[in-house]
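Blinded run. Sample ID left blank on purpose so nobody reads anything into the name before looking at the predicted structure. Input follows.
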Amino acid sequence: MKRIFLILTVALSVVSTNVVAAPLQKLGDLVATGPGQRIHGIDISKWQHPYDKPIDFTKMYTAGVRFVIIKGSDGHDPQDADAKKYLIADRTAAQAAGLYTGFYHYAYLPDTTDKNQIIVDAKAQAQKVVWRLASIGGYTNQDLPVALDLENNCVRTYRGNCTRYMSKKNVSLWAQTWLDEVTAKTNRKPFVYSYPQFLETAMTRSTSLSQYPLWVAAYGKDPALQSNQPGMKTVGCFAHSWTKSNCTSNWQIWQYTSCGYGSKYGVPSSRVDLNVFNGDPTSFAALTTGTWQPQATDMLPVNEPTTINLVSSKFGTTNDGAQFVVDVLRPDGTPVVTGNVDFKSADSTISSGTQDLNRSGTGRWTLNISGLQANNYVGYVEFTDPTGTHAASLIPVSFTITQGATPSPTPSSKPTKKPTPVPVDSCAKQIRN
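Blinded prediction complete.
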């Protein structure tokens, strides 16, 4: 799974069915109907809407589910747009059916070792979450706190392979900054969603981090047995911020499988993630206390002015291409939260090459351009934001590409026949429920 919570007003093509007005939940409705006599929950994203099919939340409630956590935002703009598409409709329909709701933000970490840049990036992604939450009116008493989905510390890839990972110390710095920032602005402590191996190997142990509630993904053990605990080694402990002296984790929500039967819970997809809550109805209800109502300054800006600054540039031969590193800032000097950049030649008859954009951090991009011919180039690097949050801005650039050496052709080799892949059942060692 990969997730975290948020919200925003957009026109949606999704219409949920079987929605009836329902009163807000009472503690009596939170009778533990899940495995192990625990409160049962589900988490969803666009993958639970194949072909834009709606979810039947009334059927979900009837099946014993009492909370649903929805993907609400993402650190990358295309995935964020997908999250926004379903968030409002799903949250409204789920609450109308009597379910508690939460939402999560899927985090991408910045490609930098500069601690100041790491802090700036974490605060910018936290701002994105606050804007999303503000756009739906803030928390209600049917909302769980937002969650930070932190499960990927790769910050640079090449041809699909990770070439750089963020250090444990810096991952923890980013997470702590994000969590503290969201807490300060919403007056509720967010969840941390991850899995035990990541918490141990990608983050440092921290008493500050352990103060935040843990939503842990751990498959293969049946939560119907009260003695079973998530994320336990056969021998020894997963040593992370939430590990207790007996090697169990101090968890609040356990995602125990990704192989729930979708149709059983009113979900159009064949599979769905299932969760249980660690506690009684009173402790669950405590998570929903403290409503936050946004002020005008908390709302997402519209066409907010931006400034683009050139951090560095380099260019050479037709073999090397060109590279530009730019920062794009809001009026208060903080980085923009959405958008992207590209190079445009002022001469439409000259190709602008093949452009590869890498987000070094929120508001900072490295733009690599290959496939350029030997020529003098005059144009501009332009920032645009399809979401309409930030206004466009541009910076003029000029550079010269010289002819590089022509590489010698490599002899062709006879292709080897690849073996036919053997189908793998990803649910083979999971609980099917």
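Unblinding after everyone has recorded impressions. The longest strand covers residues 65-74.
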